[in-house]
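Section 5.1 Outputs to date
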Amino acid sequence: MSRRLTVALVQEQNQGESEANLVRIEQRVREARARGAQLVLLQELHNGPYFCQHEAVHEFDRAEPIPGPSTERLSALAKAEGVVLVSSLFERRAAGLYHNTAVVFERDGSIAGKYRKMHIPDDPGFLEKFYFTPGDLGFMPIETSVGKLGVLVCWDQWYPEAARLMALAGADLLLYPTAIGWDPDDSDAERERQRQAWVLSQRGHAVANGLPVLSCNRIGFEPSPTGGSGIQFWGTSFVAGPQGELLAEAGTDTAGLLVTEIDLGRSEHVRRIWPFLRDRRIDAYGDLLKRYRD
């Protein structure tokens, strides 16, 4: 049975301060609704710059409680436009305890649920372990009026286990708010290998789980606060169907909306012809709980 859903991804570059970013988000969500969107996905940490290029205690001032000022603003936006809205915020849970948290708003403005990023990177230019405590809410889809949303965040997108657990918990689709880009010092060939690997890994999650995937990345160059090379975010926000087919894809350097329609009902058909969940050998996967098989 067909279950059509119009989705929009907001691919943007940092506008400076939080207020400017929120104003731009409001403009984009209004435009998305005018184009028929029922579900809108924002990029990771959309309220400001990607501050994790360095380790500095003053950056914790960007964090806020949930509920808090940004959730009030986004709640009002979701209600005014009648959309399900997936946001990405720097959560202050307590003094010295912070998370990278996705908050989902229902069409009436209520908070449908939240997800705290589980996998936290510590790579050159992506020093997130200094800022974010690993999530403790597990891999549970968030119930909304448009379906069960398997929301994951950025670095989570490299882990098939995360996507699988969302699928096993009944997710109707997988969503990835993201902030990822190139080191400008890398060669063109290395940049393209990285970007294609990023797209391929998430399309693989769609195939392996028979689910649509929505991935929303930021664009633009953001300089390093410490004089390093900075990051050139590569955009390429995309929507894939349950066989990994690309339904829509944005460019690497263009801000704007990516709007397309997905058929949630296709997952049933795809899973009937490719019954991966049926054929899983759950009796033989115990070693997956080990760090490594020595």
